[in-house]
Amino acid sequence: MSVSQLTKRVRRELTYLDYPAREWTVPRFMDGVPVLDVLVVGAGQSGLGIAFGLRLERIANFRIIDRCQRGFEGPWRNFARMERLRTPKEVTGIDFGVPSLTVRAWYEEKFGRRAWGRIDTVPREVWRSYLDWYRDVLDLPVENEVELMLIEPANGIFLAHLRRSEGIERVYARKIILATGFEGSGRWGAPKSLVAHLSADLYAHSADDIDFRKLAGKRIGILGAGASAFDNAALALEAGAARVDLCFRRSEMPRVNPLTWMNFAGMLGHFGDLTDLDRWRFMRHILEELPVPPTQDAYWRCREFENFAWHPDCGWSFIDEACGIARVQSSNRRFEFDFMIFASGVEADLSARPELALFFEQIALWRDRFTPPSGEESEALARYPYLGQAFEFTERHRGTAPFLRGLHNFTFGAMLSHGISGAAITGIKYGVRRLVNGIARDLFCEESATYYRDLLSYQTPSGHLCLARPALRDSRATNGGAVKAKVLSYAMRGCRLSRRFLLCESCFQPRDVFLETLVVFQQTLTGEEEDDGENGTPRSFTYPSLASSSATSRKERWPPFGARRLSRRDSFTSWGSISSPVIGQCCRSGRLRSTSARGHLD
Q1: Taking the CB of the first residue and of the last residue of the chain, which one, N or C, has fewer CB atoms within 10 A?
Q2: Which fold has domain 3-186+347-447?
Q3: Are 174 and 35 in contact (CB under 8 A)?
Q4: pLDDT digit string, tens, across residues 540-562
């Protein structure tokens, strides 16, 4: 099977999940303009997964935008410089449990099953290609090169200001989801205390767009000991840098990856349900005491070069510039660099987000809701936003900004509130579901009165209920002669009668018609005709058993063994038990079910 065949398979399988199919959200208008139910900002792996999740919940009135051109959403073709992902290849999440939509299914069809068995992690560029296929196979309506500039509260909803190539577009939305990755709750940036007096062409952050070809023949200094520090060092060395010195303040190289420990369902799915104290302690240890180490591949890429060195206990304390050279002072050494790269991570700072400029001061941070025990303080963690159960912002002062419950932060800033979720592949499986379920819950509960009024006015009759009695098909009907002829013909064929007769003459009929069929069958065998008795009392007839007989002649098989006197106007259940061959054939026809060994009909 090829990738094109896999695409068809995915689309076919999705039709199996098309229940309930009704699009149920209530249309809204503001100043005569339609209001979106959801605006998703960011079309990386999180944004794509959210869009698919909304579709599965039959929320169709949404848009998804991204400021980058197609194929460059997220970090994978921007500042992510590892050769392979750091997560296990078996990771799932945005597939929502559809096996054919997983990266493994796509990879095996693209490169073969043996190729999948030979890798431990997915190459970075391959993962980005998988996301491109994921977007196409689901036909997600991503709008590229559209940037969110400002969010403005407007009568309980939001007015989003979007910058497009042709100008500014203003869109109303009930919900806005910020799926903007690592920097979505703050900013990348070099420490201001170190670079305040330096020329901008002397340094860059590891998340910046760096032309490594220009670093050939230069002395490069890198501050940091995490995975991105080694990734950038490797690229500088491979580009021909004269020397690369990697400096970090810790006494030894990080070797333990705490994110690996977190990869179990309880932690990934229910971290957000812990107490504030537990969440604080977990994340303080993970984010501050156990930084993510470099991968083995990145480490060996650097160690292959003799002009690479790394220096523990070497945090930079001061930098000045002289004749285009950066002079760096650490606690025990001095360096001179032609260019510096700061791999110092992302800083949580909502004031740095232009889209939140009108109300960032009204958003609750962890320092507003939680006071850690003595000795466990962290100024960095205290600046993280304090989020609700569905990743929504909360109010710093209760009751002052109720609109915040419609603004959801699915970024790295959710780490302290919900663990690995908004900016990590490993937690996206649980985070996206929690977010989408919360969105659907809010959209439904906010319109409960509307749904109730709709229920009260609901007058559509059921398409499966017909109150009129169907015409009985017996020997007295217009085509009774033909039916009777068929019955007689079938009767002479023994135990195959019931199944064939029901399928050919009474298939999918109501119970009273089934009863009528048996009476007609009886009349055919006995030659009797139905006449009403005295006082309108119907005559009864004998239904012959179809049990096998020792008679050698087919005609001799049909005397009424165990005959029972039955009336056409008897209730269906009053017929009691009927011989096994009849019931067996009826059950195999799919119209009746047997409740006893003797075939009592229900």
Answers
A1: C
A2: FAD/NAD(P)-binding domain (3.50.50)
A3: yes
A4: 434 343 334 343 444 444 334 34
